[in-house]
Specification:
Structural class: alpha+beta
Organism: Sphingobium cyanobacteriorum
Keywords: Hydrolase, Metal-binding, Metalloprotease, Protease, Zinc
Radius of gyration: 20 Å
Number of helices: 5
InterPro entries: DUF2016 (IPR018560), JAB_dom_prok (IPR028090), PRTRC_protein-A (IPR022499)
Protein name: PRTRC system protein A
Strand content: 25-35%
Number of strands: 15
Length: 251
């Protein structure tokens, strides 16, 4: 077998994030193993573009990274995009508990995490240690998860202000795999609003819909961050476990 790199460190990095050409006929054992894995990520390269294949115990994501290549390649199709919550949607009562906590913290900002246990399929809310909280600034510590526990949602509030992702949020989310949510307008008579995005592979992707089940008085807006691929790429996929993106969707 041809070595991809003669430097041991580079070889280890390439092995950790493999790149597989899609065969024009038949199947790729490497891609099949990656797509069915508990955790891992790599790339599929097809005649119709490149795709990030990312797996976590709670998430299965196939996200296009490029439009179709102009050059002719003797490869097959990279496949349909998907964004599947392997853990299922978070029970709505957890969102209600978080919103109550955020309102109690007014006028200051507040934070919460939704954790999922892959062994028991249990969700729980974790309220982190807060180092600083004001109406415009929040410093908090992410949880140190015990084995089998995973961060699914990282949530914080903007108090009475609008829901949006700041430059600080962008920096914090750049190297994480999670659903990031910001809740704002907590004291508005029409109810709060929530901005959401899926952070994966250094990209910010619009979520197809709220990760929470049931109805609650909270409107979900499309992500304010620039997303690539466009939200419609994943949201329009028939294989997605979430519904299509809508603006002001009841979450």
């Amino acid at each position: 077998m041809t070595m991809l790199a003669d430097d041991p460190t580079a070889a280890a990095l390439l092995a950790a994030v493999p790149c597989y050409p899609v065969p024009p006929i038949g199947r790729s054992p490497g891609l099949d193993a990656l797509r069915s894995s508990r955790a891992g990520h790599g790339l599929a390269v097809g005649a119709d573009g490149a795709m990030l294949i990312l797996r976590r115990p709670w998430l299965a994501l196939d996200a296009p990274l490029s439009p179709p290549f102009a050059a002719h390649l003797p490869y097959g199709s990279m496949g349909d995009p998907q964004a599947e919550l392997r853990c299922g949607r978070v029970p709505g009562e957890h969102l209600a508990a978080v919103l109550d906590h955020f309102r109690a913290a007014l006028p200051n900002e507040a934070a919460a995490f939704i954790l999922w246990n892959e062994a028991t399929a249990e969700f729980t809310v974790h309220f982190p240690q807060i180092d600083e909280a004001t109406p415009t600034r929040l410093v908090y510590r992410p949880p140190a998860c015990e084995p089998s526990w995973h961060v699914v949602c990282d949530m914080h509030s903007h108090g009475r202000g609008p829901a949006y992702f700041s430059a600080t949020d962008d920096a914090d989310d750049a190297h994480a795999t999670k659903i990031s949510l910001v809740v704002g307008r907590l004291d508005h008579p029409a109810g709060p609003v929530m901005a959401a995005r899926l952070c994966a592979g250094g990209m910010f992707l619009a979520v197809p819909r709220s990760p929470f089940s049931g109805d609650s008085p909270c409107s979900l807006t499309s992500s304010s961050a620039t997303s690539f691929p466009p939200p419609s790429t994943i949201a329009g996929s028939a294989s997605s476990s979430w519904d299509a993106v809508e603006t002001a969707l009841r979450c």
